[in-house]
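Page 37, continued from 36.
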């Protein structure tokens, strides 16, 4: 990655870790559902770490496009944890639009604000992230299609 500083590196590492964590979580949810439920809160809790990274990046003078993702992750993580683990609301099936809409919007906004700034740092990172996003999206979709013998 030519000509990037340590704050750019920190952003890139955080962005890729976010996507990797999602891939692992969605794979667990598909093939080891109990493990995904047990470790699911960690996915949301990492939003706190992402927000700390965003503070560092912002204080370092980077563009808002590089620090917004971490704060969005924190909001998505708090919202998701509250709905799923505190309130234990079943909102996916059937879809409860009052929850699904904000959840999806926060999730996609987080993804986009980790993904799009990568092109400003080094264009090949954007393409690599695109591949990871496709993988995570496919795993996310199929993880909601539970086999008949493994009902939730």
């Amino acid at each position: 990655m030519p000509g990037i500083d340590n704050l750019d590196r920190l952003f890139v590492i955080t962005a890729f870790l976010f996507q990797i964590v999602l891939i692992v979580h969605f794979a667990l949810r598909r093939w080891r559902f109990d493990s995904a439920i047990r470790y699911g809160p960690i996915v949301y809790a990492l939003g706190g770490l992402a927000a700390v990274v965003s503070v560092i990046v912002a204080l370092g003078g980077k563009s808002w496009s590089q620090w917004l993702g971490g704060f969005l992750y924190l909001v998505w993580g708090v919202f998701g944890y509250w709905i799923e683990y505190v309130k234990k609301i079943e909102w996916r099936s059937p879809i409860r639009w009052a929850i699904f809409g904000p959840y999806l919007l926060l999730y996609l906004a987080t993804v986009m604000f980790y993904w799009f700034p990568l092109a400003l740092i080094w264009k090949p990172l954007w393409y690599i992230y695109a591949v990871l996003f496709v993988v995570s999206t496919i795993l996310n979709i199929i993880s909601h299609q539970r086999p008949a013998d493994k009902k939730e």
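The longest helix spans residues 33-59. Flag for discussion at group meeting. The two ends are 44 Å apart (CA to CA).
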